[in-house]
Amino acid sequence: MNRIMGAVIFLILAPLLGGLIAGIDRKITARMQGRVGPPILQPFYDVGKLFEKEKVVVTTAQNFYILAYLIFIALSGALFFAGGDLLLIIFAFTLAHVFLVLGAYAAHSPYSHIGAERELIQVMAYEPVIILTAVGFYMVTGSFYVVDMATTTIPVILYLPGVFLGLAAILTLKLRKSPFDISTSHHAHQEIVKGVTTEFSGSTLGQIEIAHWYENIFLLGIVYLFFAWNPVIGIIAVAVTYAAEIFVDNVTARVRWQAALKSGWLAAALGIANLAILSYMVYGGA
Amino acid sequence: MAFLKRSPWILHYDASSCNGCDIEVLACLTPLYDVERFGIINTGNPKHADILLITGGVNSQNRPVVRNLYEQMPEPKVVIAVGACAATGGIFRECYNIAGGIDKVIPVDVYVPGCAARPEQIIDGVVAALGILEEKRERMAGGARMKEEAGETT
Amino acid sequence: MQTLLFLILFPILVACLLLFVKRTTSRYAVVVLSALAIGGASIYLLMRYAFEGAVYFAAPSETASLAMVAIEMALALFIIYMGAKFRNYLAIGLAVVQAALVVYLEMTFSENLHAINNLFIDQFSIIMALIIGIIGSLIAVYAVRYMETYHHLHPEVRDRQGTFFFVVFAFIAAMFGLVFSNNLLWIFFFWEVTTITSFLLIGYAETEEATKNAFLALVMNLLGGVAFIAAIIYLVAAGPASGGIDLAAVLASGDAAIILIPAVLIGFAGITKAALMPFSSWLLGAMVAPTPVSALLHSSTMVKAGVYILVRFAPVFAGTLAGVSVGLVGAVTFVVASAIAISQSNAKLVLAYSTIANLGLIAACAGVGTHMLVWAAILLIIFHAVAKSLLFLGTGAVENRIESRDIEDMEGLIVRMPKMAVMMFIGIAGMFLAPFGMLISKWAAIEAFVQVPFGIVFVAILAYGSAVTVFFWAKWMGKLITVIRGVEQIEKGFFEEPWIPLYIITGLVIAAAFLFPVISSMLIEPYVLVIYGVTAGLAQTNVAIMLLMMALLLFLPLSFALFRKSAKRLPAYMGGRPATADLHFEGSLGMTREAQTRNYYLTTCFGEARLFRPGAAVCIILILASWAFAGVAL
Ligand code: SF4
Fold first, then answer.
1. Judgement on whether residues C358 and C486 belong to the same structural domain of the protein
2. In chain A, what's the furthest Cα-to-Cα distance?
3. What pLDDT shows up at residue A285?
4. Residue A284's pLDDT is what?
């Protein structure tokens, strides 16, 4: 029962929290650049506006894939907060992103096509770290279930510092932040027009935005798990991590896809090194 | 509800400006003026934009582009012509290649005078455009509602 | 036992019959009827033996064994003849060595060459039989019309369809024989028959390239064959402790150290047959064969024989360094082949690389060989056979229609051949997306690898491997579903293959995803339980969630109805240039130009030239290591 509650609370609150975090993010970014910045609620205005706009498509099929994207992102997040199997959640998460990419493909437009390819490179870059994160949690807590990871009394971060750093690196990718915002950026500034979202407008773009909020909360949830043995430290750690992401976003320039891919895979290598040492300790060298 | 006025996304197109007005448009984004305060974003994609902001006059090369950008934007949308060139052709009016202001190709809602237009004026123009944008939105929503009602009765 | 014998002997009868049927319609009738019989018999097999565990049969051995040796010699002579004709002396040499070893075995140990039970059936055999019986016969049905079209489109190829179908059915018989045999000599015999049939079918077009590739496949598989017969000689020579030529006895033998060496040798045979690195080139070369051949031999069945034998020997490998080495050969193959698949635009080569990759993954599971991994490996065999055969057949059908097998040319297939595109979409989804089968197995494999020593190496490889897998499948999927304008639907054609096999296999892909808990609890779990005393499987709640996702996916397309109305259509954004819906835009100087979209192949990172050699080198070292470890263990 508790678990279903977790899922429901996520489904309702995550967009609100996600939008709020996006608003704070923009405010902090503006302050870092010496600007006043938009109101905290600006992301909600933006999405609200998008739903007011006319529906414009290149092909109607593209909206279908985005709906599927939103549904599966929400589903994987809901499974996460219901305490489900982390590997299964990751697979649902990948499925969702494939739908986003397919939507961009369906539109048959040069810009969204390039965006789709680059989004796929991103998926390829972050996937290993995400899987290794799940494996790392298993090695420490002995379970793939989020519920066990969240209620563990072991300070996971002490066992998995390498994995955590790897995850922090690909978090930049996932938050669509510089230097790894190669497929589309959370900022207005453009990347080969607007990458994967180029051909989406109005409510469909709004759905992508909401999906992104869901996704961010889910990812921050994973960050929290590293510190779950102490909720206070956990929440502080999540905030610090996110602040660091904003800082990195503002002090770096976008890299090319090769560098993004290499960084993602190097982050995974860091995770592997961490896990190798861990497994050496567990199996005593055999 | 009217979120539109709180979140106007701008597409800036340089038709055949001397770059003077363009610099002023970009100045609006700098910390000094910081238009993002009003939720204004400078997007690069007509499909995401609400306001088409054009500097410079129309010539035969960019005529189809201006029209295309306008057509690519989803309703409701407004057009702002920034600077004397965009309004009438300005200093280049007599050139053999200049057809005149933007309104030779697409309907313009707001004219921002100046050569170059000052950032304050540009922001003013955008604010004026927001009113028009809101009007258009209401008309569109009303139209949609009417269409729906008509659909139900038939 | 009758069913078993029927499944082995009946296809041979059909094969001989087809040698004499000349007209396509009558050939079609014969193939359809025998497909029904074979498919029906394999389903009967399922119902009859599914709940009985392993059942052994003392099939008549003297005459059968004698006949097999005779046929083996004849085949060796045939290879020598072909080798002489095409001046491939390596093939001759290997055939001679192999024949000599067989003769040596028969002469020296003739009194030891009796297995009490020559035939057997257990759940794993049933699964293999179902794959061969159902998928195999569907492919055969499909092949009839396909070959007709093939000869129409390739008038330069000599029409030898009689021989073609003879070989196909002989192959099906051999596959049944292989999975039902408990006598290692019999398995070896059928093993060799599949090698020869593969050789014949790859060389079908009789072009220089086809012949060359056929010999490549032959030589590599013969190499495996030599290892196989060497393993048998070793087992027989080792005396009764090893279990001799009785497969069940060998696997049950208490003396792990003794049987490890033959296991590694047979594993090597499996590696060649499954085209793992460094032997992957033969499978790529095999793609010159007509597409049904690729579907039947080179993805869903014959190459599976290689991993079948590996999975059979998994309990022997379990917990040994030799096993880990064999597993690593598979794992390295998995990641390298998947990565190379990114750089390929030829659909059949992508399929081939992905096949090699998945066989590698299965081999990785078998080599490490814990109960959970065997469970995952068998599941992989099933799902891969179903989804991959669909993709091969689909690619073949598309190729006959658009006369290209390039993925770039499949752009917009959803508009041009909607039904086909949907089927291929499902097939691709079956290969890499949750909640379809392959992913379940990958998931189980990750969970299982974490729990063994050295598992982290496998997990790391799997993590990278799945990432690249997503890339090359998703971009193909994207090409298929791109909605292009201004093209005709070309689904209907003059030559139409019967698409029923395709519909059925598509249904099977979906059904397999829905029914996998049943398949698992009915067939795989009991099999694992008997061998390891513990059983494997996914947790109930996760299964429920998977099924939920599946149902969601099936219902989601209904939402298309939502979007049909009230959206304004605009052409794609082309940097402000006026453009039409089919991506023609006004370029400079009043010229209309066309924009084209092409996928990324990232050749500098993932090209064959860059990755194959290192991958092959690592695999060779690992294979040698597996031998060394097996030797040391003795
Ligand atoms: S109005 Fe003046 S500053 Fe602006 S583009 Fe024209 S000439 Fe340049």
1. yes
2. 64
3. 45
4. 58
Phi, psi of C334 (to 5 degrees): -55, -50
pLDDT of B147 over the 70 cut: no
Interface with chain C: mutation pick from B16, B68, B69, highest number of C CBs within 10 Å: B68
Listed in sequence order, the residues at least 6 apart from A87 whose beta carbon sits closer than 8 Å to its beta carbon are: A131, A134, A144, C443, C446, C447
Question: Percentage of chain B with pLDDT > 70?
Answer: 92
Domain count, chain C: 2
What average pLDDT does range C20-38 have in this prediction? 87
Inter-residue contact A41 to A23 (CB < 8 Å): yes
For residue C522, being part of any structural domain is answered with no
Instruction: Mark residue C566 as left, alpha or beta (left: phi above 0; alpha: psi -120 to 50; beta: remaining).
Output: left
In three-state secondary structure terms, B14 is: strand
User: Residue C577 and residue B45: Cβ atoms within 8 Å?
Assistant: no
Domain end, chosen from C283, C312, C341, is at C312
% of residues, chain A, pLDDT over 90:
41
- For C165, the token pair is 């179908």
Do C169 and C239 fall within a single domain? yes
Q: What does pTM read for this prediction?
A: 0.92
In DSSP terms, B111 is beta-bridged to: B81
Which whole-number Å values give the CA distances from C486 to C339, C415, C421, C426, C493, in the listed order?
35, 10, 17, 25, 19
Size of chain A in residues: 286
Q: Are the beta carbons of A193 and C575 separated by less than 8 Å? A: yes
**Top-level class of domain B9-153:** alpha beta
Q: What is the dihedral of CA C446, C451, C453, C454, to 10 degrees?
A: 10
- With an 8 Å Cβ cutoff, are A45 and B74 in contact? no
Residue written as tokens 């220089």? Answer: C208
* Statement to judge: residues C308 and C324 lie in one domain: no
Short-list C315, C350, C322, CA closest to C265: C322
pLDDT in tens, C61-118: 777 778 888 888 888 888 888 888 888 888 888 888 888 888 888 888 777 667 677 8
Q: What pLDDT score does C74 carry?
A: 87
Structural domain of A96: 2-283
Place of tokens 């390891």: C532
Range in A86-100, B14-28, C155-169, C563-577 the model is least confident about: C563-577
For residues C390 and C454, which has the higher predicted lDDT (pLDDT)? Answer: C390
C-alpha distances (whole Å) from A57 to each of A52, A142, B137, C229, C475 are 15, 48, 19, 64, 22
Closest CA to C528 of C67, C20, C127, C105: C127
Phi, psi of A145 (to 5 degrees): -85, 135
User: Would C566 be classed as within a structural domain?
Assistant: no
Cβ–Cβ below 8 Å for B75 and A54: yes
Instruction: Name residue B58's beta-bridge partners.
Output: B100
Q: Say what the ipTM of the complex is.
A: 0.91
Residue B90 CB less than 6 A away from ligand 1: yes
Q: Are the C-beta atoms of C324 and C454 separated by less than 8 Å?
A: yes
Q: What is the pLDDT of residue B144?
A: 66
Residue B70 contacts C, CB cutoff 8 Å: no
Inter-residue contact A164 to A101 (CB < 8 Å): no
> Ligand 1 pocket: which of B12, B13, B16, B17 to mutate (most atoms <8 Å of CB)?
B17
Looking at the structure of chain A, the number of domains it has is: 1
Spell out the domain ranges in chain B: 9-153
Q: Whose structure tokens read 């393993």?
A: C231
For residues A132 and A268, give the distance between their C-alpha atoms in angstroms, rounded to a whole number: 7
List the single residue in B3, B42, B137 with the smallest CB-CB distance to A45: B3
Q: Is residue C47 part of a domain?
A: yes
Contact A171, A248 (CB under 8 A): no
pLDDT reading at C536 higher than 80: no
Q: Which structural domain range is residue C47 located in?
A: 1-312
Same domain, C269 and C333: no
